Amino acid sequence: MSGRRIRAIVRKELREFRHNSSIVVAMSIIPLLFVAPPLIQIFALPPEAASALAGGNALLYMLGIPAIVPALVAAYSIVGERTQDTLEPVLTTPIRQEELLVGKAVAALLPSLIIAYAVYAFVLVAVGLFARPGIASALLQGPALVAQVVFTPLLAAWSIWVAIAISTRSSDVRVAQQLGMLACLPSVVVTTLIAYEVIPPTPGLAVGLFVLLVVLDLSGWRFVSAMFDRERLITATR
Predict the structure, then answer these.
(1) 3-state secondary structure of 238
(2) d(Cα 165, Cα 158) in Å, to the nearest integer?
């Protein structure tokens, strides 16, 4: 694949995102929905609750951000261009479909990772500054921090491939975004259940989920590449 053509697609997509107010607003609001509830609960906890929180994984709830935000962006990637009549000129160029898909996936991944890590850093700082004594040290555990760093890009990549697959078969941007979010809800449910220890977090579970997500990300790219019908998409834009 041509790195030059992929970079061109990435730059084009990022410019499109910046000029699309609905995407910018959605990428701003959704993280707030994930940040506000846990922070309110954490700030209200008394110091005596620190012992109960020790060794917990409450902040894994924040993994819902990389599971949802990328889906909104990636769901726009194909159907958005179809509705604006800019897809056909791209598809009639010599660019390979694998290059096009990788470029669109990377363009959706970059802002999603920046938002997810920035919001998580904000939560860590807020907890460290404003939580009652002992609460911050009980919450800010090494394994939870590592899990956040490692699983954020894996969850985001999986959400992106699911949303791009939906985008290639949709004819309406809002429908594609709604379906993309619905398709990514199972990831949010699993991370929430682990955060609240309904599903006990263990090293074996972490390794298993890591391997599963790597396999899903790689197979997702292969699957979307196989279902991407350039001729059908060109015809549909006319």
Answers:
(1) coil
(2) 11
